[in-house]
């Protein structure tokens, strides 16, 4: 008795095209710092074979850069979404045949600046200011994130060592005119990463806008 079986073979080539890029503040050209994961996503719509394409997504890194090396050849509309910035109304259109690099300039909901930091024994003092490039939503809170990893974001921080500043009951014009200072007592003989974030009542993601992370060594 002879048994014959038929197996379907996927003979399509694997996706091997590369898309890289970055997301920056449209005014300062500084990186848009975010969280990873659960920060900003990159949305791809392949437009050359389907009038109603299904969106594809992948995460940007915490410094606003991104790289995906597993994309099919084709024409795409590319847009950063879900991040702490005013949503873009138009995608960038690319014809991906090998490797493409794109830059997105966005208006962050808030801009946080780390003005100064100092270490005195086991006490770390940081000062910061909050700006609002676009008069959009009420500023709700700021936080000094402390972590043993370089991420130091809302996705990775030590809750006992970090410090929250509730701003909901304060008028935005007062917040924007104030320099804030936080004093943190950290364990001795260890190294930590510190980053300041602030957020507003945006209707996009309720994610923080961040400063860059700094490393402090506690004697």
TrEMBL record:
Cross-referenced Pfam families: DUF3823, DUF3823_C
Lineage: superkingdom: Bacteria
Location of the DUF3823 domain: 18-106, 116-213
InterPro entries associated with the record: DUF3823_C (IPR041186), DUF3823_N (IPR024278)
Protein's UniProt name: DUF3823 domain-containing protein
């Amino acid at each position: 008795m002879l048994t014959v079986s038929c197996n379907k073979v996927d003979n399509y080539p694997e996706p091997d095209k590369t898309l890289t890029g970055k997301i920056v503040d449209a005014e300062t050209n500084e990186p848009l710092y975010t969280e990873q994961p659960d920060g900003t996503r990159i949305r791809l719509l392949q437009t050359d074979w389907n009038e109603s394409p299904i969106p594809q997504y992948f995460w940007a890194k915490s410094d606003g850069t991104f790289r995906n090396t597993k994309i099919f050849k084709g024409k795409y509309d590319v847009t950063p979404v879900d991040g702490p910035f005013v949503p873009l109304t138009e995608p960038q259109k690319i014809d991906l045949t090998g490797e493409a690099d794109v830059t997105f300039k966005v208006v962050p909901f808030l801009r946080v600046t780390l003005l100064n930091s100092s270490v005195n024994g086991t006490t770390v003092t940081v000062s910061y200011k909050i700006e609002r490039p676009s008069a959009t939503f009420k500023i709700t809170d700021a936080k000094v994130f402390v972590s043993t990893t370089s991420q130091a974001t809302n996705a990775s921080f030590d809750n006992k060592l970090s410090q929250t500043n509730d701003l909901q009951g304060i008028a935005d014009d007062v917040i924007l005119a104030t320099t804030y200072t936080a004093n943190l007592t950290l364990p001795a003989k260890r190294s930590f990463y510190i980053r300041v974030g602030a957020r507003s009542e945006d209707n996009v993601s309720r994610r923080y806008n961040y400063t860059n992370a700094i490393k402090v060594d506690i004697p």
